[in-house]
Amino acid sequence: MGSHGADHGPDGGFRLPAVGAGSGDGEPGARSERKVEHYVTPILAKLDVDSRTAAVTHAIA
């Protein structure tokens, strides 16, 4: 198993490398952690907005 970013996990989903582990090419772990946050934060923010929209829609209906 090499460190090539996100690998496919056994369930077909994505398995992220351990946070802080770096990428194995001399990259510090903190940079890897920022990279994860860069991609994950907008997704979580969108999911949060979607869940609030769904809750409001459900409350109105």
Notes on the structure:
With 61 residues, this protein is mainly α. The chain has a domain at 29-61. It contains 1 helix and 2 strands, in the order E-E-H. The chain has one helix at 29-60, and strands at residues 7-8, 14-15. The chain has a two-stranded antiparallel ribbon. It is rod-shaped, with a radius of gyration of 16 Å. The termini are far apart.
CA(first)-CA(last) distance = 49 Å
Strand order in the sheet with the most strands: 1-2
Q: In this structure, how is the largest beta sheet organized?
A: 2 strands, antiparallel
What percentage of amino acids are in beta strands?
A: 5-15%
Overall helicity: 40-55%
Could you give the count of β-strands? 2
- Would you tell me the structural class of the helices and strands? mainly alpha
Oligomer: single chain
Instruction: Summarize model confidence as the mean pLDDT.
Output: 67
- Report the total helices: 1
Question: Could you say which overall geometry the principal axes of the C-alpha atoms support?
Answer: rod-shaped
Order of helices and strands: EEH
